[in-house]
Design a protein that fits this description.
It is a single chain. The chain has about 375 residues and is α/β, with parallel strands linked by helices. The chain has helices at about 25-40, 65-75, 90-100, 105-115, 120-140, 145, 160-195, 215-220, 265-270, 275-280, 295-310, 330-335, 355-365; strands spanning about 10-15, 45-50, 80-85, 105, 200-205, 240-245, 250-255, 285-290, 315-320, 340-345. The model is unreliable at about 1-5, about 150-155 and about 370-375 (pLDDT under 50).
């Protein structure tokens, strides 16, 4: 068996899309999965997209296409199969039988990246909680296989006993982690209470993963121990720095949090609530956007949808078009989405930061809620 944790050399990516979705859109969706693989440390050898009404309940791809993909994987000496969706336990089993190599879904690769970037106990606990919620349903898929390990009529065989033991262990560990995270939440709530007593306001950086939030945190606060990398999910832990406002000569706090990505399952977001509470409790949201991203409008919508799910849709918000220095064409720069309370900056070149500070100060002084967009 290949040690995937040490080496992910070759991957085959699989996706099933409805017949109405244009090929170009499907390829863009799979390209994001390819970036996840690259962030983890692998290389994509083959990408397979199949258009059909819905994924096969047995092999995700249609049976014939799945067999063809397995033959291709063998020819290319691929190490792992990654599906751009969430797999059911029996789908994993059937695909493994076909490919005879490990099979991951989209959540698996995200969790592997989380593992790679986790720096604190809190992050590791949240990742483990998400993984346990992701793994638990897979145990039910093992029930039939394990039930064949002995046992007579009306009795429970050793396989079923093993399955029940695993379920009890996972339930126990989930409760244990949730208890530890509740303690962290209580500590955080106490810290926020002290801030409010001191009349310290907080602005939370939010945005699609790899939009430049951590670079902006460092540029605004001069906080040095901020990990910055051109990778997806480089930040998992909350980092908080001080920002001195230009006119009032008083400071606020800037909190950097985990980046968002499309199709995050609810259990994964729930696992990171200890971190995301900084977003929920913030006085102002700084929505950082990669101005050079060709899918800019879609990613803005993804972030806004997650913020709405977190109950943050009425919070005051600044849309920050970062990486504007990478746009060479003035027409392209002028065609960026027109949004209320928006600003163009370059965090890495520290361009536009003074205007951003003034806008932050203005919105924190006002009683206005989030402005509707111009469309």
């Amino acid at each position: 068996m290949i040690d995937i944790q040490k080496r992910l050399t070759k991957a085959i990516l699989i996706d099933v899309v409805s017949r109405e979705i244009p090929r170009e859109t499907a390829e863009k969706n799979l390209n994001e999965l390819a970036r996840l693989v690259q962030t983890y440390g692998g290389v994509v050898i083959v990408q397979i997209i199949q258009k059909r009404g819905r994924p096969s309940l047995k092999t995700y791809l249609g049976t014939g296409k799945a067999i063809e993909a397995a033959e291709t994987a063998k020819e290319k000496d691929v190490d792992i199969v990654i599906v751009n969706g969430m797999l059911k336990p029996h789908q994993i089993q059937h695909l493994y039988k076909l490919f005879d190599i490990p099979v991951w879904d989209r959540v698996d690769i995200i969790l592997k990246i989380f593992d790679k970037h986790a720096k604190t106990e809190e992050a590791r606990l949240q990742i483990e909680l998400a993984r346990l919620h992701h793994e638990f349903p897979k145990l039910y898929g093992q029930g039939v296989k394990l039930s064949r390990l002995g046992g007579g009529i009306g009795t429970r065989g050793p396989g079923e006993q093993l399955l029940e033991s695993k379920k009890r262990h996972l339930r126990s560990r989930i409760k244990e982690i949730e208890k530890k995270l509740d303690t962290i939440k209580t500590v955080r709530a106490g810290q926020r209470y002290i801030r409010k007593r001191k009349n310290l306001k907080t602005a939370a950086l939010v945005g699609y993963t790899n939009s430049g939030k951590s670079t902006l945190l460092r540029a605004l606060t001069k906080k040095k121990n901020v990990y910055i990398a051109n990778e997806l999910f480089a930040t998992l832990d909350t980092k908080i720095g001080d920002l001195w406002l230009p006119n009032k000569r008083e400071k606020i706090l800037i909190a950097d949090t985990i980046g968002f990505i499309k199709d995050l399952p609810p259990f994964l977001i729930k696992s990171f609530l200890a971190t995301l509470e900084e977003v929920q409790e913030a006085d102002l949201l700084l929505h950082v956007i990669d101005a050079n991203d060709p899918e800019i409008q879609h990613k803005i919508s993804v972030v806004d949808k997650i913020l709405a799910d977190l109950g943050c849709s009425t919070k005051k918000q600044i849309y920050i078009f970062n990486k504007a220095d990478l746009i060479e064409d003035a027409d392209t720069l002028n065609k960026l989405p027109r949004l209320k309370n928006s600003i163009k900056i370059s965090a890495i070149q520290k361009a536009g930061l003074n205007r951003l500070k003034e806008l932050i100060e203005k919105l924190l002084d006002s009683n206005a809620v989030l402005q509707p967009r111009n469309t």
